[in-house]
Amino acid sequence: MSEKDLWRLSATETAARTTAGDITAEAAAGAAIDRMEAVNPRLNAVVESLADEARARAQALDKARAGGGPCGPLHGVPVTIKVNVDQAGHATTNGVVALKDMIAPADAPIVENLHRAGAVVIGRTNTPEFSFRADTDNPLYGRTHNPWGDHISPGGSSGGGAAAVMAGIGALAHGNDIGGSLRFPAAANGAVTVKPGLGRVPAWNPSQKAERGMLAQSMSVQGLMAREARDLHLSMPTMIETDPRDPFHVPLPWRGAPSEGPVTVGFTKQTYEFDLHPEVSRALDAARDALVDAGYNVVEVEPPMLREAALDGYRALMGEGLVLMEADIRAHGSATIQAIFDEYYRQFPPFVGDELLRVMAKRSYYARQWSLFLDEYPLVITPFLPQPFFSPDRDTEGEEGVREVLGSALWSYSMNFLGLPAANVPARLAELTQGPQPINVQIVARRWREDLAVDAAIAIEDRIGRLCLPLWERMG
Q1: Which of 209, 307, 359, 412 has the fewest CB atoms inside 10 Å of its own CB, making it the most exposed?
Q2: Are 147 and 100 in contact (CB under 8 A)?
Q3: How many domains, in total, are found in the chain?
Q4: Where is the Amidase domain (predicted)?
């Protein structure tokens, strides 16, 4: 592989080669930056290039290694950071024009942890306004485009990161997820991710002026997207390092106890009132077959109270948002985001007052039912969306658009309300009339067992292959 093609390396391959001295961190960062400068003008995935400081950091890492200093687990790995998380000296805009000059005074825990591990941040990635949309567009930076083509939304809210990592701009992309914002863009672009469970990854923005609402605290998590599932085993232990600024972080190791015998996996194609598309059905079959071949015990199941938990959770989140976000959205949001929120409120009538308190209490009931269920089935393979990923701006198309984008995503936001880990991995590349399109499936795991979900994602990827390879051929 020539030096200019080093951007093709996975995070695992990059870290191994920079640590061994086969390549320099400067060469790895330079190749990723060159790739960014070549493909990002069309994608608009990275909205702030950090090329100069990335090169300087990579040079410093090389100098430290040459002097006998230790190498972190992500030594020289190029990464991107989403613009809704603090990175010292850079604006935490959250895709909002009014926040374009809000410069972060210090790094958020995840940025600190990545730096400590030796990662090199090459750019900051796009998000929709207020990071509360499953598509990525805003008046400040404009639209992010999916590298597979404009027939597919890049997803959101971490759409910039997913488009970047799949296009070869960095081996890892940071994102976050309050209702699906890691898994939507992973599914849209054919990336792999694991939404961590509640308390797994420390979170806090030094620039914030008030604490987030209790449901936002309970449902939102920080994570990474990659183009190779094994990179999550390399990188997620870095993400879960303790930070005292998050008082509710749970300091558990990444790897749990090994299983005795084959892991039992629940399998469902249940999409409730939404039609299951044949391509999604084929993707689920492919994921099931891959796990069976890998030695898993796969059993068809009927998961408990999924639809009820999903709708109660999202209506509760909308109730909290009505109190804590509504004023900012009306004051600083575009007409587009205001219209989308109005439609959200119509389709997910917010719980308020006593209702909100009662449904927040009922969250424990739902979580207990799932805890008992996952005691028998440590992993569950589920659809993510019932249909192939939607087109750009579908959520601006009134009731039917929002119903397809968010209303059908019961398997997504339910996992946030329950606080459970959920991986998302491509299991098929569908050839549809409008063009090729990744189809991802979801792997729900027991609490604290993100590692089991990643193991299963690796087994599926080993059978299906990495979708970055046909994508790069298509991109040229």
Answers
A1: 209
A2: no
A3: 1
A4: 31-451
Burial of 216 (0-12, 13-18, 19+ CB in 10 A): middle
Dist. CA 390–CA 273, nearest whole Å: 18
- 131, 158, 181, 412: the catalytic one is 181
Given the residues 10, 131, 153, 157, select the one marked as catalytic. 157
Question: What CATH number is given to the structural domain containing 466?
Answer: 3.90.1300.10
Residue 165 structural domain: 3-475
Q: Residue 70: what pLDDT?
A: 96
Known catalytic residue at 63:
no
Average pLDDT over residues 346-358: 97
Contacts of 90 (CB under 8 A, 6+ apart): 48, 50, 103, 104, 124
Q: Is 82 designated active site?
A: yes
Using the predicted structure, report yes or no on whether residue 175 has a pLDDT greater than 90: yes
* pLDDT category of residue 397 using cuts at 50, 70 and 90: very high
Report d(CA 183, CA 422) in Å as an integer. 9
| pLDDT at residue number 209 | 94
Q: What is the per-residue pLDDT for 1?
A: 80
Q: Answer whether 45's CB lies under 8 Å from 169's CB.
A: yes
408 is known as an active-site residue: no
Q: How far is CA 312 from CA 306, 331, 365, 395, in A?
A: 10, 28, 12, 21
User: In this structure, are residues 182 and 223 in contact, taking their beta carbons and an 8 Å threshold?
Assistant: yes
Give the amino acid at 411.
W
